[in-house]
Amino acid sequence: MKPFLSFIKMQLNVNYSISALKYRFTREKKKRWEPILIGMVIVVSLLPLLALYTALMLSVFSGGLMMGQPEMVLATAFVMAQLVILIFGILYIMGTFYFSKDIMSVVPLPLKPYEIIGGKFIVVLVNEYLTSIPLLLPPIIIFGVGTSQGVLYWLKSLIIMVIAPVIPLAIASLLVILLMRVVNIARYKDLLVIVGGIVLIFASFMVSALMQNIPENTKDIEQFFASQTSLVDMIGSRFPPAIWAAKGLSGGGLSGAEYFLLFLGVSAVLLVFMLWVANQVFYKALLAGQEVSRKRKVLTGTQIDKRLGRGTSPVLALLKREWKLMIRTPLYVLNGLVGSIAGPLMVAVLYFMRGSDPELAMMAESLKDPEVVPYVALGCLGLMLFTAGMNLVASTALSREGKTIWVAKMIPVTARQQVDAKFLCSYFVSAIGVLMTTLIMVVLLKLPILWAIGATIVGLIGSVPLAALNLLIDVFHPKLVWNSEQEAMKQNMNGGIGMLISFIVLLIMAAVAFGALLLGLPVTAAFAAVAVVSAILAAVSLFALHAVAEKKYREMEA
């Protein structure tokens, strides 16, 4: 038991860099503010989304209360939380169990297969609390306060929140373990991640589109729930654990206790069964996944001379390297390229849904009004800049180097040239998002070509400071120690800080544009003002980036 507990402690330590944080708080006293600042940035950046979700749950609770079914809010929240954990958990578990960099290092340890899987499962479970708790806590508080629940309810809710991710993660683990045993997924890992990510993105778009149909006022909410007479039965038949959790919390007496114990019992049985299966097949699946085929390509003398004889500038060569490394890693593609076009795609989805929503259809028609067109172009510029600001490629550019950062420090190229290459790579990703928005403006919204060109030019200028500032954040504090590409991007606090900085810059640009309009200036003047401010911010941010590059590169260690 002691080796297993030590293994769990080690995995949590590696995943959350606990030793590094402890060292920073005890030895590097001048840097104590960094983790605190990062935590504050994350909380502030998530507050608007949490407020929106809480408002939605309040509407669900109000509707359910009118129907005499206030527990509807709990069932809805558990369904959402468990579905999200199940869908995203499959890829997460596959990467943690089989494709993490430390997996072959832990196999020789004096641990049985189920202990290795159990330790990694706990790490995934702890990470999923970051998803499940924000989804479950608001509805639990809303129901508890709204129905004046007692102490027992709050104790049960605490236990259920701890156990909630177990069932979906155990199911996802079983699927992954059995699939890895039958199919050599490692050979198709890149394709699987890309396809899975695209499916998840489109699924999120569909959910967002369906949310548009949820009514906003109290009367409509009552009618909405009244028309869904079989909603609770449907949830109970397709997602039984959600009903068990909801009734276990909301029910009193023996009935509530039965559902509560049923939820805990099924969670325990599924977890034990998953560990038993893992103990039988984990090593076999892992070894099968290590089998790869070599592809040999023989170059002729002419091809070798041609390749060796070509010369290019250091920045261009590094730019090609950055681009190839990003394209070859599916997680970087999904979080970079796909993330940059998510905003424009969402606009396209709403446009195609206008037929089912009279308000959307009316709004789409009003956008063609010649007097409205300049303001539509200004709005599209805002979408372009928002898309550029959400670029994770810039805020994780150095972090993605990981332990190979020593290569960047050894090659005979200045740090300034290296950050220039990373900036250009990040800027190209932002430019793709800007051009995608332009395409939607012209093809779907029928925006006049001159307004589209003007918005695109200003959008490309405004993307410069956003990419440079995000890169500057990662140059200051890169996350170079990670076990998987997912940690380098999705679990990198620099991404959240970069989004917050981008949001502040976007507020400045928006204030400049609105200021010009309030002064009675034409919309073209607002475009010009945003372009001038963007150019100034671009010059300042690029100067700051070059000023700190050499010093920070010398200090970097993985």
Structure description:
With 558 residues, the chain is mostly helical. The protein has two domains: 32-288, no CATH class; 315-555, no CATH class. It contains 25 helices and no strands. It has helices at residues 2-16, 18-26, 33-66, 72-98, 103-106, 113-146, 151-163, 166-182, 189-211, 218-227, 231-238, 240-250, 253-289, 301-309, 314-327, 330-352, 358-366, 373-389, 392-395, 405-410, 415-443, 449-476, 485-489, 493-518, 523-555. Helix 3 (33-66) packs antiparallel against helix 4 (72-98) and helix 6 runs antiparallel to helix 13. The protein starts with a helix and ends with a helix. Mean pLDDT is 78; it is low at 210-222 and 224-230.
Brief characterization of the structure:
It is built from 25 helices and no strands. It has 558 residues and is mainly alpha-helical. It folds into two domains: 257 residues, no CATH class; 241 residues, no CATH class.
Number of domains: 2
Along the chain, the helix and strand elements come as: HHHHHHHHHHHHHHHHHHHHHHHHH
Largest sheet: none
Separate helix tally: 25
Query: Would you report the number of β strands?
Result: 0
How far apart lie the N and C ends?
32 Å
Mean pLDDT: 78
- Beta-strand percentage? under 5%
Helix content: over 70%
Structural class based on helices, strands and sheet pairing: mainly alpha
| Mass-distribution shape | globular
